[in-house]
Amino acid sequence: MLLLQPVRSFFGKSSSAARAIFSRSNTSCVLRGRHLGRDSGEAVLQRIYDSLNTDRSGDDLIEQVTAILNTATLRDVGLQEGDLAGDRIWKGRQQSLYIPIAHTSKFDIAVFIIKKGNSLPLHDHPDMTVLSKLLHGKLRLKSFDWIEDSRQSKGSATTVHAATCINDREVTAPADAWRLGPHNGNLHDLEATETSAVLDILLPPYGNGRRCSYYKMAQDPVAGNRGNASLVLLKQVPEPRGLPEFYPYTGPSITTGGSRSPKRFWQ
Ligand SMILES: [Fe+2]
């Protein structure tokens, strides 16, 4: 979900994730000693990248990317079920993991691995669209919209603002991707009821004035009800502790912009 400001949020200022280092490798994709065929994982991320890396925009682009995203699996991002259950990637880590895959001025692609019982806390993506695909696991997704009247002073750390919970559901993999729009469900949190892997696409990425803010319930439901939607009061809070920490991407490289050399965006 994050880059620039969010990278600092998740990984600290000295994080290697904050450096977009491009490297070349040969055209074979070797993943932990195993060859990953081009027609398996690589194709899906490459197709997503190529679709995003055009001048297209709007619903047509979203629908095209979502259709590809719906075919994505753990293997497409260089992971297997055993990786999530085993000790290799955790090595004593208590926090969830953030695996950046690709970054351009137009979009970000990344994977979050959320440990069972952990959450991505309530946060926003100002003026951004988020496409998310649960690759593995089970989680509870909640998303909110601001009540228009309360948005006038949104941003104050000392004031609460009303929001409507528009989505509160459990998602179990495999499941279709979901979409958060700039003004529809943009505030959201994810709670992993099983260890989960989520492939995220941000359009556009954080940065250029788009900063991630965090919120918490200032008052448990219910300030009232409007139709069937729950109204809640949310308060902006400082960056919470325990945010996901960087983990390197080891999946298939992506060939960019006419280059025949596959690139890794992060090391
Ligand atoms: Fe998010």
UniProtKB/TrEMBL annotation:
InterPro entries the record matches: PCO/ADO, RmlC-like_jellyroll, RmlC_Cupin_sf
Pfam name, any one: PCO_ADO
Region entry Disordered, spans: 248-267
MF-aspect GO terms: metal ion binding; oxidoreductase activity, acting on single donors with incorporation of molecular oxygen, incorporation of two atoms of oxygen
Tagged with keyword Metal-binding: yes
Keywords: Iron, Metal-binding, Oxidoreductase
GO CC, any one term: mitochondrion
Transmembrane residue ranges: none
Protein's recorded name: Cysteine dioxygenase
UniProt source species: Tribonema minus
